[in-house]
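Researcher: Good morning. I'm working through a list of sequences from a screen, and I'd like to move beyond sequence-only analysis. For each chain I'm collecting a predicted structure so we can compare shapes side by side. This is the next one on the list. No need for commentary yet; just the structure.
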Amino acid sequence: MTQLPAGIRFIERGWLHSNHVVITDSNGPVIVDTGQHTGVEQTVALLRKQGVEPSNLQKIITTHCHTDHWGANAYLHKLSGAPVACGPLTAQILTHYDTQAMWIDYFGIERFEPPPPSPVSQILLPGEELTIGSYLFEVYEAPGHAPDSIALFERQHRILLCADTMFRNDCGVMNLKVSGPETISHAIETLTQLQALNAAVALPGHGPIITQVNRNIKTVIT
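Model: Good morning. Structure tokens for this chain:
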């Protein structure tokens, strides 16, 4: 089993819901991606199983606009008062509730349409640093699977929070109908950029933890 620092916890979900990453902060835990609203009770149970009380959440970070990554934002925000942080394009999509960009309209599955998300309180700009407890994360643009995706890299332990930019031996689904034909080239550029970080471990939005990260990236882009 891959060992992560004690203050970073990875919760793997099924493919309907995004995985969660929980990072310890002295003011309260921070969660990265909250899953679909349809499974929020299980989300709460999984957090408590990890010793994390959802009402104590200090911040909610959303990596991109697809509903399986932010659908439970409103519920967890109401429970904890935790502000929502995300990249600038994600903030725009969430604020305008752009259901096409979210893939809600494309797939037409009404039961996956969550309540409107909580207002975005913090914009995470590419190139800036984000301190969470004792961890310093660098923010990267990561378009491809979604044009608004961001990735977070913790350089001391070389931990990459890559969301859906890649999975183990695969990459996230790309929707050229919604995002345009440049999506594939953007995905390759993103993976090439992430490869340069030489991460030791990557925590994806779906599926298990990725070790041998650069080998995984090479498998995906060749």
